Amino acid sequence: MRILLAEDDPLLGDGIRAGLGLEGDTVDWVTDGVAADQALTTDEFDLLVLDLGLPRRDGMEVLRGLRKRGDMTPVLILTARDKVADRVAGLDAGADDYLSKPFDLDELLARVRALTRRHTGRAVPHLEHGDLRLDPATHQVSLAGQPVELAPREYALLRLLLEQRGKVLSRSRLVEALYGWDGELESNAIEVHVHHLRRKLGNELIRTVRGIGYGIDRPNKDPA
């Protein structure tokens, strides 16, 4: 999952980016509201983690602009403004969740997982596809009850494709989701990750659509 973090505190921002990175997420980090606006209008993100007290442009202005453009990217607000009126204002402006500073990193990670789950329409925390099971909270992947060891970006790719079952994701979308702005990327990196996943999980799991990208088909009788 690709996340935009808008936070001007260097220590807090670094800690959040590291924590989300351990979850398998790709985090692009900006430190002011103008940069956040620019990133949101030029790139696609799965989640925005937004501090309200940003320099150059307040986080509430960033949030209102996002929703005014019709952008439905989920937004988790982080702020030291912990009055009820501030929380209500943020939620009414279009935020999906609100976390007051200081906070525990584990709670932040749990809220990010919950927002992702709701945004993708899942009622349960884990992802299942036939005999394949992925648990975002523990990073455990199993096939027919047997654990499967995946490299970090293999795991991130599998999670994204499972969350977007029934859709074909372009190679550029996958590159952005897995590498963001700072990742070092070999020209065939996505193809290599797909090859490894097929070798570990079966050739039929991931479908290639020539000239477009990759996807996992939704089972015919899938109730989700």
TrEMBL record:
It comes from the Bacteria. This is Transcriptional regulatory protein qseB. The keyword Transcription regulation applies. It comes from Pseudomonas knackmussii (strain DSM 6978 / CCUG 54928 / LMG 23759 / B13). Keywords: Cytoplasm, DNA-binding, Phosphoprotein, Transcription, Transcription regulation, Two-component regulatory system. GO terms for molecular function: phosphorelay response regulator activity; transcription cis-regulatory region binding. Its main location: cytoplasm. SUPFAM superfamilies: C-terminal effector domain of the bipartite response regulators (SSF46894), CheY-like (SSF52172). Residues 124-218 form the OmpR/PhoB-type domain. Pfam families: Response_reg, Trans_reg_C. Residues 124-218 bind DNA. GO terms for biological process: regulation of DNA-templated transcription. The keyword Amino-acid biosynthesis does not apply. The modification 4-aspartylphosphate is found at D51. Residues 2-116 form the Response regulatory domain.
